[in-house]
Write the C-alpha cells for this entry.
Amino acid sequence: MIPADADLAKLGTPPFLTPNANFYRVDTALSVPQLRAEDRTLRLHGMVEREVRYRFDDIRNRPLVERTVTMTCVSNEVGGDYVSTSNFIGVDLADLLAEAGVKPGSEQLFCRSVDGWTSGTPSARRRIATAARCSRSG
C-alpha cells in the first residue's frame, strides 16, 4: 500500500499522465503538414469488403470514446524519454474498420499521411477484431 503522504514526484517519478507540453514528439519532416479540417479525408481500402471514405464532419458526428493510451517511439531506448501517457478522445477505429469489413487474411493496418509518411501495424486484424468485439460488448 502506498502511504497517503507519499510524494512520488519528489522522488523523481513522473506523473502517470503526461502533460501536453511534455508529450514526446518526433517529427519526420522538416515542416509539419498543414491541412484544413474540411480538406481531410480518411480512406479505408485494400483488404476490405467495401472501400469507405470519411470526411472530417463524418468523423465529428460519430460517438466519441476516451482511452488512456501509452505511446512510445519505435526508436526509444529502454528507459528513454520518448514515451508518454495521455487521455485521448476520438472515434473508435474498430467501428470504422468493421464498417469497411476487414477481410480474413489481412495482417497489417497501413497508414499514409498527407506528406507521404507511412507506418504499419503488424497483426492488426486480430487486435481489430478483438477491439470490435469489445467495443460492441461494452
User: Anything to note?
Assistant: The first helix runs from residue 56 to 60. Residues 98 and 132 are 7 Å apart (CA to CA). Strands lie at 41-44, 52-55, 65-72, 83-90, 108-112, 118-122.
